[in-house]
Design brief:
Helices cover 18% and strands 35% of the residues. The protein is globular and about 60 Å long. The structure holds zinc ion. Zinc ion binds next to loops.
């Protein structure tokens, strides 16, 4: 973790950075990759709200939330960009910071009114929650845990082409955890449902926040047990076993799928 939640009362570090956000997009200087802005270079009116995010290299970072409806123009040198457009252009720490800002402003936007009684909410003073002014229901930022993993069969790995993947690209299998399921159970179920294969030896690999809009990807590796590959033809259009010397087009290293595939390739190199 590179940026950390720091003590806001620490006045020895006066520098602050701002991340203006409107309609789920980041304010960015045209022709450049995205960066948080210094206080004296914010080309916007006052935001509806600001949210503290933590400190990046000693500088306190704030998300500035602008109402979706309120129209204003930014100077010619700036534009609003989706975070996806910055994939591969900015460092992983900046990606994580921007993702955190987007998730927190989305939570704030989506919980201005209570989902139980419909009354306006207020922001809690003690923690990151919107609290109903009438019934005291509390609404926290929503994080959706997902499982993703690479299944091995000897020297082969299982990769699949999802309906949303570009033609020719194969990736690891993934899916949302359902209520009452462990992460391992969810991964075994996803593999069974999507390609009809049974697995065991499910081992935790790593995790990655994926702010589109609020997933936490929990990655696993596993071993093949039984079954013939049968893509469900709903989520998965094709699935195959690949050896390290005959890999298809795969996702980039900055995605957790890319890490898993890299790890498999490294294991194969070490074997030879
Ligand atoms: Zn309420």
């Amino acid at each position: 973790m590179v940026f950390i939640a720091a003590d806001k009362s620490d006045n020895s570090r006066p520098h602050e950075l701002y991340i203006p956000i409107r309609r789920g997009q980041l304010l960015c200087q045209k022709g450049r990759s995205w960066l948080p802005l210094a206080a004296n270079s914010i080309p916007t009116p006052d935001p509806l709200h600001r949210h503290y995010l933590g400190a990046l290299n000693g500088e306190h970072c704030y998300a500035l939330f602008f109402n979706d409806e309120k129209d204003f123009t930014v100077p010619e040198a700036y534009e609003w960009v989706p975070l996806r457009s910055q994939l591969g252009k900015i460092s992983s720490e900046l990606f994580q910071l921007a993702g955190r800002a987007l998730q927190i402003t989305k939570w704030y936007r989506d919980h201005q009114y209570c989902g139980v009684c419909g009354s306006p909410t207020r922001e809690s003073e003690s923690d990151r929650a919107c609290v109903c002014s009438q019934c005291e229901s509390r609404f926290y930022p929503r994080i959706s845990p997902c499982v993703i993993g690479l299944v091995r069969r000897g020297n082969e790995c299982l990769l699949a082409r999802g309906v949303r993947h570009p033609e020719g690209m194969y990736s690891t299998l993934a899916g949302f955890i359902e209520p009452g399921e462990s992460a391992e159970e969810a991964f075994a179920r996803e593999v069974r449902e999507e390609v009809g294969v049974e697995i065991n030896n499910i081992r935790y690999f790593t995790s990655q926040p994926w702010p589109f809009p609020g997933q936490l990807m929990l990655a696993f590796t596993a071993d093949y047990v039984s079954g013939d590959l049968q893509p469900d033809m709903v989520e998965i259009m094709d699935a195959q076993w690949f050896t390290a010397d005959k890999m298809p087009l795969t996702p980039p290293r900055l995605t957790i799928s890319g890490w898993l595939i890299d790890h498999f390739l490294q294991q194969m190199r070490e074997k030879t």
